[in-house]
Amino acid sequence: MRSILTISYPHPDDRSSRAVISMYGTAPFENLLNAGAGTNCKAGITALCLLVLCSLLVAPVSAGMTTTEVTVTKLASDGVTVLNQTTVDWQWMKENLPVIGDGETIYYMQGPIFEDAWNEAHPGETYDPWNPSEDVNLIYKDHGEFMGTDVADLLDLAGGAEPQDRVKFVASDGLPKEWPAEYIYSPNARQGPFCLAWYHGSDTGYVNQSFTDGMRLYFLGETTNADGMHVWGNWDMHESWAEDYWYYYSGIYPSASGVSVQNVKTITIYSSETPLAPIADFTAEPVAGEAPLTVQFNDTSANVPTEWDWDFGDGMASAEQNPKHTYQNDGVYTVMLTVSNDQGSDTCTRENLIAVEVAGPHEPQTYVVDADGSADFTTIQAAVDAARAGDSVIVRDGTYQDNVVIGKSIVVRSENGPEKTIIRVARTESKDDHVISVTADGAVVSGFTLRDAETGGAGLGVFDATGCTFADLVCTNNSHGISLHAAPGNEILNCSCNNCYRGVDLYEGSDDTLVTGCNLSYNADYGIWAESSGRNQFIWNTLVGAEGGGAINLRASCDNLIAYNVLDCCNPQGAHCLVVEWGSENNTVYMNDFLSSVLLVTVDAGPNAWNSTEPFSYVYENRTYSGYVGNYWENVGGRGYTGEDADGDGIGDTIYSLPVHSPEFSPQYDRYPLAERFGNYVGEGNVIPLSQGWNFISVPRTLASGLDTAAVFSGVSMVGRPMYSYDAVSGWETLRADDPLSPLMAYWVYSETPCTVPLTFDPDPVSTPPERTLAQGWNAVGFTGFSPTSARNAFLSIVDEWSCAIGFGAGEQRYEVSFINGAQGAHGDGRDLEPMQGYWVFMRSAGRLCAISG
């Protein structure tokens, strides 16, 4: 009997196989490794290691390069002409195409069956390298809890394939593999779908983590062996494919694992379709503006042209595919594009496409859109193109179908709100097709329903723009509701995002964003996703019913404030109310309701604050307290806060310990957990009641830091109307959400329905009472204090300067009877001013108004 140790390395095409090691005259290698510490065993292992090292020195195996995206190309019958081509990364696949594999089921790949391994498993039986029972050489072959994308779905992105077409897979190191498209579109149950895997189980993760063989081709067979193992086996290969596609290790042994291509880079369809002449088409952005006007032209021609000839209409031309051209002079220009390939050419002409105006100031204009032709324009994009910075576009009721691009600082709003003004996406060819795209600073978009951007697009996409306001939007049936990319300093107010993959996304430094008053519920992944974006405020939002991920995810995002939110994932499969991960630090989380999730919060980063970092006043059971506050952790099945509140101040007597995912992070706690939901900590004196229509309001005392801006009104449905203040010197001013609210100032707020707005006051008792200089003429002033006081007392500090004051009755939507300084009777100054109300005061001369309450 031979007793020679032999080592055989896989053929380069069998890169899924590990080194094949066999022993003649002794136990298989895996048994040798598990043997005792005997001398013979040690000697065998030593000899084995030396032979492995020598073989590695003379016969290295190429490892390839990890891929995270794949290019799918469809070629014509000549094998050269490109009919279609697209490149997608793994994350796009995950978000936009059906996922196959559940990330839990293990799939095995059977390797070559050597005689010693066969004899170990089937003593006395005739050697069969096909091993139909699938019980040899499984454990040490590549396997895992895969998730990935069906290759058939990827082929469809490039126009699909016929059964007789050939499909070639090429790895990043050049290794090719080829099959008929029939095997991909109509897989045998033994084979299962061709799966391009981008996830390899919790230990290995995704292709951007430790899955270094990805993206990798696997076969998710539906059948199992006698042990219930899902195996892509040698006999499965024999029964599923024609003999030309069987793979043999060393040209001798069938090996199903040898067809598993790792690090797939390209997939090419060799079709039988005849090459076609191109059909010219293009887009331009922007199409109107002041000189000099730079326009980005993009070729969108069909049938893959190879040459381009642009005529910009001003005597200039270009042979680039996607040129950028600057118009120096005012005028209206016609643009032509001629495209060609080996099959022919075609020309697209756009008459009077580019409108260039003389630079300089202009009077703001308002353009009205109505699809029935009764207004200035029938499409929203045409009105946007005609508008200049500072103009407004008003859209009347109706359903519009468009991909609107706003590249200038204008206002685009509906006339009567999102229920009556719907925009459906017109083009959904890629993840860049959004219902509305904003690329300019200072734009305002409000009052629309935005829907049906389902192929990776958003209801509203914002790119490299700052200082914008987005209000009263309903985003539904989109891949993403509102998505910001490198877009800091914007406001998302009173919006609703539902039935999307994600509600609100913040990416790539979309810092200093305010998201408030929003309902971001019933989305597939997360209501809010913040990645590499910090100093944001997520306040007064409702996030309910996430299907998979949860309510809020912070990923590499720091210094954010999360307060006054209702987070309820209500998913028994384990969604999270809040996930904090990947270096997210110094975030502050307090006054939130964490409700009924299997996992209320998951922490994989830190440190973060899980309660207020400063004390402030709150009202609980009709008593006012000053102190630190945390969050409400609903106790369902012992997962929430179970402590008591013995002293009745609304704060739990013991801390709440948060689950920290990784031991490398210090324990984190909510040190002041709420005994009840945060809504029970706002009393009657802490709310401003609003009537339907216009309200003239004021705040009775100084508000708490961080909660002292117009953002506290962001939950009010204003139907696209801004808040206003008035100054006798500067006149009317429009408030942004980050503008401060001050005592003695008065503000105009519109509300679609009656509601209340809670306030949080500064708890510091050591502060100077407010005062304000009023100019000659009309001034809009606020009333300080929580109890009615006569106009005579309230205006005592300006008794010699004021002559008349007028209040506004929000319930009746009209001005009330005026107050006259020194008068008696109906206009007497002994009548009371009311808390939370604003008043007009006419000053005969300038004076200093002082508060009557701190």
TrEMBL record:
Pathway annotation from the record: Protein modification; protein ubiquitination
Residues covered by the PKD domain: 278-361
Signal peptide: none
Domain of life, source organism: Archaea
Alphabetically ordered keywords of this record: Repeat, Ubl conjugation pathway
InterPro entries: Ig-like_fold (IPR013783), NosD_dom (IPR007742), Para_beta_helix_rpt-2 (IPR022441), PbH1 (IPR006626), Pectin_lyas_fold (IPR012334), Pectin_lyase_fold/virulence (IPR011050), PKD/Chitinase_dom (IPR022409), PKD_dom (IPR000601)
A Pfam family per the record: PKD_4
Stored SMART domains: PbH1, PKD
Protein name (Swiss-Prot/TrEMBL): PKD domain-containing protein
